[in-house]
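ok trying this again, last paste got cut off
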Amino acid sequence: MTAYETFVGFARTAVFVIAVIVGIIALVDWMVRTRRINPFNPVARFMRQTIDPLMAPVERRIVRAGGMPTAAPWWSLVFVVVGGILLVVFLQFLGGLFVSVGTFAARGPSGLLVLLISWTVGILQLALLVRVISSWFGMSPYSKWIRWSYQLTEWLIRPLRQIIPMIGMIDITPIVAYFILRLLQGLFLSAGM
């Protein structure tokens, strides 16, 4: 596992270096776009010829959304930073996944069963969280981004709604379902140990 941790550390450093480089490019490109650098300067010509075509897709999206084209370098930087953070988090998650699979596989079939139950409960809890947060923003349950959470959790929420009344305009059945899943996970984990 030490090699993987080294790889994740290298990826973290690479993401940081790339973000710094993109930040410098974004600053210079922004200065060219806002005429803080002479447009006939060799740096400005290089940026217009080389960097601006790379930022054209970002610029088109910004303009379609009603933004200013001069914001394209900063949005590019935001995409690089957020993408880098998501990459590092995913790599750390993957490392934890490998460790947990190795740990539970060493216990034999009962360990793998406990691992499978833990993953199932984790996915259901994530689906409940997505469902609740999407309802706060008034997103349609039929949206392609949200539908999966309703399909995974409706079997648990529907019977609870028949038993638990709403409190004013607040539906607490997802919270109750979350705690039921935690309770079941605790019971299975304690029985599997």
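PB: full thing came through this time. The longest helix spans residues 72-105.
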